[in-house]
Amino acid sequence: MVIPEPKEGLAQSIHNASQRAQEPFISVNCASLPPNLIESELFGYAEGAFTGARKSGKRGLFELAHKGTIFLDEIGEMPLAVQSRLLRVLQEREIMRIGDDKIVPLDIRVICATNKDLLKLSQAGKFRFDLYYRINVLKLQLPSERAMRRYYADF
Predict the structure, then answer these.
(1) What is the pLDDT of residues 82-131, one digit of tens each?
(2) Separation between Cα atoms, residue 95 and residue 82, nearest integer Å
(3) pLDDT exceeds cutoff 80 at 57
(4) Residue 27's closest CA among 36, 40, 15, 17?
(5) Which residues lie below 8 Å from residue 91, measured CB to CB, with a gap of 6+?
(6) pLDDT of residue 151
């Protein structure tokens, strides 16, 4: 039996039960993206933005999630510089691709997850306070994966 990943499963369920269910659901593990690539993956880039960039540019994951939901897992691993840009996305509901001068409006739901104490990280200067307060709207605590495994083992 495949045991579902609890955080992503909950985020997908929220998306599926909403009016956005027919729109994209994009899941991103922030810890798995290398720090030098995370910004271009999330926000995209314009033609010629950097050496090795696609000639046509690239839409980022936020753009791909337009009208849908983006799930940012392990948000506590996101570099501070990227946290600043994420805060702007949440406040202004728009992005600007790397190397571009055009603003792209967005209509997305953002769901975040972490296994870290973001308030303590904020107090230590490793996570932005303003971003913490912006994403800490509804806090849900899920059982550990170990507890989930025990639960599913009974079936």
Answers:
(1) 999 999 999 999 998 887 888 999 999 999 999 899 999 999 999 999 99
(2) 12
(3) no
(4) 15
(5) 134
(6) 64
Q: Output the 3-class SS for 57-83.
A: CEECHHHHCCCCEEEEECHHHCCHHHH
d(CA 11, CA 24): 12
Cα 151 to Cα 5, 130, 143, 146, 155: the distances in Å are 13, 37, 10, 9, 8
- Assign 3-class secondary structure to the chain: CCCCCHHHHHHHHHHHCCCCCCCCEEEEECCCCCCCCHHHHHHEECCCCCCCCCCCCEECHHHHCCCCEEEEECHHHCCHHHHHHHHHHHHHCEEECECCCCEEECCCEEEEECCCCHHHHHHCCCCCHHHHHHHCCCCCCCCCHHHHHHHHHCC
Structure tokens at 108: 């997305």
pTM for this model (two decimals) = 0.85
Band of residue 49 on the pLDDT scale cut at 50, 70, 90: low
